[in-house]
Amino acid sequence: MRILHLGKYYPPYKGGMETVLRDLCEAHAARAEVIALVANESRSTLEERRGGVRLIRVGRIGTPLSVPLVPSLRHYIRRCAADVIIHHEPNPVALLSYLTSGSRAAFVVWFHSDIVRQRVFYDLYRPFLRRALMRAAVIVVASPNHVVYTPVLQEYADKCCVVPYGVRPEQFALTPDVEARAATIRRASSLPIVLFVGRFSYYKGLEHLVDAMRRVRARLILVGSGPQEAVIRRQAERVPTPGRIEFTGELPDAEMVAHLHACEVFVLPSVERSEAFGVVQLEAMACGKPVVSTEIPSGVPWVNQHGRTGLIVPPGDSESLTGAINALLEDPERRKHFGEAGRARVEATFTVSRMGQAFWDILLEARRGRVCAAYRYRPGKDA
């Protein structure tokens, strides 16, 4: 079977969709011929093999509205002559290229997230998206909430399958080296550590987390970078806090894992459903850490279960963030209980191996024009 994935980019480009795309491609490379067709970050087209995957990075001519313009994508879709095509949405140029390619391959849409901000553009794009969803044999989402909170998916709920994103728990193990580095991070201050890891974007709600720290006696460590970093830094300089706020910038994977193990509480304060899932919650849970996240209409509160693996608060509510963080900092037994439950939830539901096997089963059924019953979306069902 020849499988063609249509993605935006591919690692080493950093992004959640890109990581999932790579994991899916490599999971199936030993069973099928797998091709990943993505945009390059320059005008040139490059072909290579990575992890058993044939990777074609097609030259782009620009990125208006963060959408890579790849004029020759349709040509490559035709040339690949795949048995199954998987479109990773949102990716408007790839979708239009597929729709005009004339391909008769079985078609699957992995719906990672909706287009939230560019409403005018989305109004123009929606008819083409509906056409693709109608044509798809299967639509895959990472959580039941994707269907619940995405109107365009509700129209096609009967062909949706739920396959949660996964991580590799062994990459987050507390090895002697990680334990030593985590101890060093803790020794920098006697205060407990509250941690955020992610991109400094408009939807992350970092301004509310910084404000919440006014009333939390702890160190806040912010790992990452992004367009909102300068704004958050200026706010952190103005806000009086009992502890201190530290910016680490981007960290290597091993250093990020050490910071996860060093913290007492992990916080994801997102305020918009642009945060469609929050894979970083899985990483914190794999390290045995309780999570404080927000009740946004996305997969985020489905991953972190309130009262079981952490606490969930209203989005954009600094006082509620303060209360949840302090409640966990003051209760070591509760933190331990949530952390153990979180690790168990990751190992049972959110691993790369489970994601790869589930998607393989779905592809086999999709080739026959069927929805895989084992993963079909069922309203009200939770993992």
Report strand order across the widest sheet.
Answer: 3-4-2-1-5-6-7-8
Number of continuous helical runs: 15
| CATH class category label of the largest domain | Alpha Beta
How would you spell out the order of helices and strands?
EHEEEHEHEHEHHEHEHEHEHEHEHEHHH
Strand content: 15-25%
So, the CATH homologous superfamily of the largest domain? Glycogen Phosphorylase B
Report how far the terminal alpha carbons are from each other: 30 Å
What is the domain total for the residues? 2
The parts where pLDDT drops under 50 for at least 5 residues are: none
Rg measurement, Å: 21 Å
Structure explained in plain terms:
The chain has 383 residues and is of the alpha/beta class. It has 2 domains: 2-166 and 351-375, Glycogen Phosphorylase B (Rossmann fold); 169-349, Rossmann fold. The protein is 40% helix and 18% strand. The chain has 15 helices and 14 strands. The protein has helices at residues 16-28, 73-80, 92-99, 119-135, 144-148, 151-154, 176-187, 206-212, 229-238, 253-262, 279-286, 300-303, 318-329, 332-349, 352-367; strands at 2-6, 33-39, 46-50, 53-58, 84-89, 106-111, 138-141, 160-162, 193-197, 219-223, 245-249, 265-267, 291-294, 310-313. The strands form 2 sheets. The protein has an 8-stranded mixed sheet, sandwiched between helices. Strands 11-10-9-12-13-14 form a 6-stranded parallel sheet, with helices on both faces. Helix 11 links the parallel strand 12 and strand 13. The chain is globular, with a radius of gyration of 21 Å.
